[in-house]
Amino acid sequence: MSKALHLAAAFAARAALTDRAAADLAVVVEEWVANVVEHGGDQQARIWARLLREGPRLTLSFSDGGAPFDPRTVAFDGPNKLRGGGAGLAMIASLTRLVSYARSGGRNRMTLEMALS
User: Fold this and answer.
1) pLDDT class for 2, splitting at 50, 70, 90?
2) What is the C-alpha to C-alpha distance for residues 46 and 105, in angstroms, rounded to an integer?
């Protein structure tokens, strides 16, 4: 997890993101990686991330070898008070727009877009 956050912070610095945009990016990266690790099933599967700044937006592409997971099919019913957590996908959805999801070659492949303000 710390490696993903370090890479996100390094990207934010290179891309000259505002403090707010860098913090939002860190939330998205941390929550997505945490969900893959916790729920993906294969703790050894590599998670790939590609971050790209295109003018007033960021494109975030993720690929992981965990269990099939299509974020378009998940309903958020609020945090899970029994085990803690459960709000990560809602936070990601509040900060980004899902551009695409596909399952290909045994991997989840997702692209998100984040507006920079």
Assistant:
1) confident
2) 14
Tens of pLDDT, residue by residue over 43-52, are 667 899 999 9
Domain boundaries, the chain: 2-115
pLDDT in tens, 72-93: 887 766 666 766 666 888 889 9
**C-alpha 40: how far from its chain's center?**
13
List Cα–Cα distances, 23 to 17, 69, 95, in angstroms: 9, 25, 11
- φ, ψ of residue 82 to 5 degrees: the values are -75, -40
Would you call 115 helix, strand, or coil by DSSP?
strand
Q: Can you read off the two tokens belonging to residue 101?
A: 């999801």
Is residue 87 packed enough to be buried (19+ CB in 10 Å), middle (13-18) or exposed (0-12)?
middle
Fold of 2-115: Heat Shock Protein 90 (3.30.565)
